[in-house]
């Protein structure tokens, strides 16, 4: 979905947002830095498969997914990282890897890391590698109605031992 289509959707739903153009960047941390947005507020979209059903996992750019926590949440269902080839055609008009976290517009479930809801605002790719949208988390939650779960850890504190856990990801 091109940025214009996403903006039209936000406009139709009375959402206030800011569009930020930035130099071309591909990783979530590069995008956040290029657009002068905190890695904690920049929402990266990671495509996952839950028992072979495509879904979006949305988390801060400075965090990593803990697949064990996801599998625990989904009560032993298989949860795996999707390959680009598996989801590329699901986002017409979007550049690969720049899809916005609006799975509801693509018939997909969206799961958001609890740590992303801490800040009032979030920013995310708008379908290209040169533009992001910044809006309130409350508006994002109202439109997407994501599942809010704990499934990520800050990169610097990600467990080296798979059996090790911290009390809090925030």
Concise structural overview:
This protein has 170 residues and is an alpha+beta fold. Helices cover 21% and strands 29% of the residues. It has helices spanning 3-12, 28-34, 67-73, 84-87, 137-144; strands spanning 17-21, 43-50, 53-60, 63-65, 79-81, 109-113, 121-125, 131-136, 147-149, 152-154.
Describe it.
Mean pLDDT is 86; it is low at 162-170. The protein contains five helices and ten strands; from the N terminus they run αβαβββαβαβββαββ. The protein has a single domain, classed as YbaK protein (Alpha-Beta Complex), CATH 3.90.960.10. The protein is of the alpha+beta class and 170 residues long. The longest helix is centred in the N-terminal third of the chain and has 10 residues, at 3-12. Strands 5-2-3-6-9 form a five-stranded mixed beta sheet, with helices on one face. The chain has a three-stranded antiparallel beta sheet with strand order 1-8-7. Strands 4-10 form a two-stranded antiparallel sheet. Strand 2 (43-50) and strand 3 (53-60) form a beta hairpin.
